[in-house]
Structures are given as structure tokens and as C-alpha cells.
Amino acid sequence: MTEQIKLSLLDRHFADFIVRIDRHPSDELWWGAALVSHSAGRGHTCFTLSDSFDGSALPATQPQRRLPPGDINRWRTALRTCDTVGVPGAYTPLVLDPAGRLYLHRCWSYEQQVAAGILSRSHAPTAHEDRLEAALDRYFPEHNGEIDLQRSAARMTLIHRFSVISGGPGTGKTATVARILALLLDMAGASRPEIMLAAPTGKAATRLHQSILHAVDRLSLSDDIRACLPSEVSTIHRLLGVQGRRGGFSHNRSNRLTCDILVVDEASMVDLQLMASLMEALRDDARLILLGDRNQLASVEAGAVLADICDSADQAAVPVTQLTKSYRFGSESGIAALSQLINNGEGSAAVELLKAGRSPDIVWRTLPPGRMFDDAFAAAVRDGYAGYSRASSPAEALAALGSFRVLSPLHSGPCGIENLNRLCGNTLAPVRKNDPHALRLQPVMITGNNYELGLFNGDIGVVMENNGEQAVWFETPEGGLRHLSPLRLPPGETAFALTIHKSQGSEFDRVLLILPDYLSDVLTRELLYTAVTRARTHLEIWGTEEVFRQAVERRTLRTSGLGERLAAGGHNG
């Protein structure tokens, strides 16, 4: 660590509490507790006490607390004498493992659950080789002797009870899993397995539902197999049965899910705690298939579960298939080329590609200054949302919302979504006092879950009249429409412009990406890759060359022991 660490009030209070309840308090314990809390707040599952730790990065706001820089062995020894720090398996607030990773107990427990669930399923062969190849030939026929990664993914999924299919946009993840599910049903004969589909957000669940339906329609299947394929997709929280204010889930170790096969899409968005809850709720003999793009942003909460699994696959013998052939982008696609350069961390080459202007599907524009930005942005959104502004029905409006969207990494500031949504509103639907139609066509994104209404974080609706009254219209997973009074809505926000985090699980024909003129903490390679790959056909980026280059060259690194635990077979603590 080289950047100055900024401890929050919560970090300090937690450290004070740990020191207060320990019979052997020390400055080393205070700093250990403060830093593990700080790490958890930044998405890490642990804090590593290693020789590479730069003690000079510690804040000088605690002069009464001393920790000699570089004296890691003394630090570890001091922690091992504390009542509140235990070895793996001990029921103590903090856990210190042999590798020097210091955990909050709950994070250590979640990591153990996830590793155990993956390893037990990865090492459990389920299919006979002779039957397997014959079945694969029916659903994944070989073509000219080429290596077929989709067939390889299917083989992995049939052999093991746990598997990951990772790939960028348009690589055929859902098409592959649709054929895999049909194949599993075919091989099961009369004893049809129960299949469930889930995704982290309502929007991602809707997209998975539509993608699976489209993929199944293109398959030649018997009526009985088609009837056994799932017709619903749930959010993970709804699948597990979230218990509202009480917290926790109704499906757990004591009340397992009934499914034989569970498919989870957009797995990069699933944090460590939620993945642990899934593992706990699944039957030991159930099959878990994760779909996602390991290069996308990690989850908002702690952990980078999908990336950890994929990174450890070779050492851990965990079944992971990386699909690489894009069926969406041609060889001349600028979006595909840019996303590859971003993934490779080639910032200068990415900037040169943008500036060259040789790819018709990507446009680079230097961020306009001051008032010029407002005028240029207004012109851009008038063009981008032209179809939306002309919409005469909720169906037209919702469809048009899928064709264009403004994205930003930030909430606040001139380039943040708060200001961008204000500018969009002023441009597209100027607010008029005492006008009952002032909110017409305002898009709304739900930011909380309401299970009674069936509305979930990430759901997008649009305000339009219904029999003279304002209503907010939403698309149903089946492709229909429903409406609610604005007064009944869960918390939400205007959605002309979305944060890149909120755009995960969505895709748009055209994307306008607005980047700030300074290197914000959130600007990383994974964030830019996620933003770029939201665009299907056209991408326009406004920013500065230096900030874009630096962001491409900066990775999101989350400290975790999951990958090492998987590689060691789950026996390293």
C-alpha cells in the first residue's frame, strides 16, 4: 500500500471496541482491527499482514497508537496473544490465518463456506463418459475439427456439480447454458431434474429470462423437454426468501432449496456473503452453474468471487470455461478492439484507437469545458433520446430506453449522474410549475427491493398517463406491461443517466460515456471495460486522454484468500 489510508469513524470505533473487550489490549491490536474494518469497507474480505505493507501509509491521526513500520513479525506475534484474535475455526471477532490474513470472523466464515461448496461439487463426477459423448454430439456437434469451447463448457458442466462459464458480451453464454439444460433433461430420462434460474438484480433476471426463451426457441426439442425448462427467473434474494427486517433468508442449511440445478447469471455481481448464502441453501447433491464475465466490475459489497474462482481455476482444478468467440462483434468492431485493449491494460494503445477515428462504432470527444459542456451534452441527449421523446405508449418508451443510455462512473460533480440527469430533464422535459404532465416520460430506476410489489433494485420504469392519472410503467419478465401509482413506488431515482455500477446486467444499442477530467478513485480498468461492453452497436466517450489512459492501467485489486483456499483444496485454514 502506498496511498495514505483514511480511517473512517466506524473503523476507529470498531478498533476501540475490540481493544476494550480484550484482556491483552495493544496498539498492534487496535491497528489490526481498524485496518480490517477499513479493508472490508473497500470491498476486501481480509487485510494481509505482509512484509510489503508500508507502515508509512498509516494515518497520523492516532498519535497515541504506535505501530513500527515494517515490523510485521512483531505485529503478528502481538495479535496471536489477544483474546479477540483466533486461529481459523475459533469463534473470535477476528481470525488470523497462517498466511497472515486478518479477517472479520463473518468474512472468514463466508469464505470457508464458498470454498467448501465449490470444492465439494467440483470433485464430484456425475456423468458416464460413454453416455456423455453421445449426448454432446446431439446438442454440440463438432464442426470441422475446430475446438468448440461451448462444447467444452457443456462437458465440464455435465461431469461436475459446479462449473463456471465466463465470457464477454455476445460469446453465447446463455445460448450454451440453454442447450446444457436441455441436454441434462434429456440424459435424466423420466426423472426430470428441477431447474431454477436466478440473477442478482431484477433487470439481470429479466434479461436472462428473455435470453433463455430466445435460445430455447432456436432449439429442436421434444415437447416434454421444452415443458421442463424453467419459465421463470428470480432475483437471488427472492429465490432465497429474504426475511425483511429480520435479515437472513428463509432458505438456508435447515431449509434447503428444492432444485437439482441452479443457474446464476451475472455472477460477477454476486458478493461473498450472498454466494455463501447460496451455497448454504443448495442441497449437497445439487448442481450450480455460474455465468458471467470475470473482467467486469466486482460486486458492490466485499469480495470478487467470480474473478477469484477464474484466477484459481488452473491450480484448483475448478471447472471454468472462458468463451472467447464473439457472435455479436465482427472482426472490424471498434468496441471489441477497445474492450480487449482495456482488458490487457494497454492504456496508450486504447487512447490511440479512440483518437484514430477509424472505427465507425466508437467516437472519442475531448471533454468540453464549462458552459460548452452543457450545450454539447444537451445536443447529444436530444439526438440519443429522440425516439424516446416521440414515444406515444409505455411499450414504445421502454423499448426506446433500451436503445440509448448515458453512463458515468460518478454520482456527484459536473460529470456525475445527478447533474447529468438534471441536464437531461431540462433538455427533454423542462419542468413547468403547476403542470400535471411535467413528469411525463421521466425514466425511473428502482433502488430498493419490494417483494410485495415485485419491484427490485435496478428495475426501470417510465412515467406516463393511465386514464388521466400519472402511472409508472414497468416491463414484466414475460414481456408484458404493468403500472403502479408513483405514490406506491419503492425508493428510486431518475434514470436518463446511470452509474456504470447500476448499468451492470443491462445492454443498450448506443452508449454515451461521460468521464471526469480527474482520476477519481473509482476509475479503473474493470469499470471502463464494464461501461464499454454495455454498448451493442455504438459507443461515444467524452473525457481526457490522460485520465482514460491512467484508468485503463489501474486494476481493481481485492484482497481475499478464496483463490488460495481453492488452490490448496480448502485445507489452508
What would you say this structure looks like, in words?
There is one protein chain. With 573 residues, the protein is of the alpha/beta class. The protein folds into three domains: 9-99, Arc Repressor Mutant, subunit A, CATH 1.10.10; 111-327, Rossmann fold (3-Layer(aba) Sandwich); 334-553, Rossmann fold, CATH 3.40.50.300. It is built from 23 helices and 20 strands. The strands form four sheets. The chain has a six-stranded parallel sheet, with helices on both faces.
Residues in β-strands, percent: 15-25%
Please summarize the sheet with the most strands. 6 strands, parallel
Radius of gyration: 25 Å
Strand order of the largest sheet: 7-6-8-9-5-10
- The 3D shape can be described as globular
Notable features of this structure?
about 575 residues; alpha/beta; Arc Repressor Mutant, subunit A; Rossmann fold; six-stranded parallel β-sheet; five-stranded parallel β-sheet; 20 strands; globular
Compact overview of the structure:
This protein is of the alpha/beta class.
Give a topology summary:
Layout: H1 9-21, H2 27-41, E1 47-48, H3 72-80, E2 85-86, E3 94-96, E4 101-104, H4 105-122, H5 129-139, H6 149-159, E5 162-167, H7 173-188, E6 195-199, H8 202-217, H9 223-228, E7 234-235, H10 236-240, E8 261-264, H11 272-281, E9 287-292, H12 305-311, H13 313-316, E10 320-323, H14 334-343, H15 347-356, E11 362-366, H16 370-384, H17 386-389, H18 394-401, E12 404-408, H19 417-428, E13 443-446, E14 460-466, E15 469-475, E16 481-484, E17 492-494, E18 497-499, H20 500-503, E19 508-514, H21 525-532, E20 535-543, H22 545-552, H23 562-567
Parallel strand pairs: 2-3, 5-9, 5-10, 6-7, 6-8, 8-9, 11-20, 12-18, 12-19, 19-20
Antiparallel strand pairs: 1-4, 3-4, 13-14, 13-17, 14-15, 15-16
Helix pairs in contact: 1-2, 4-11, 5-7, 6-7, 7-8, 14-15, 14-21, 15-22, 16-19
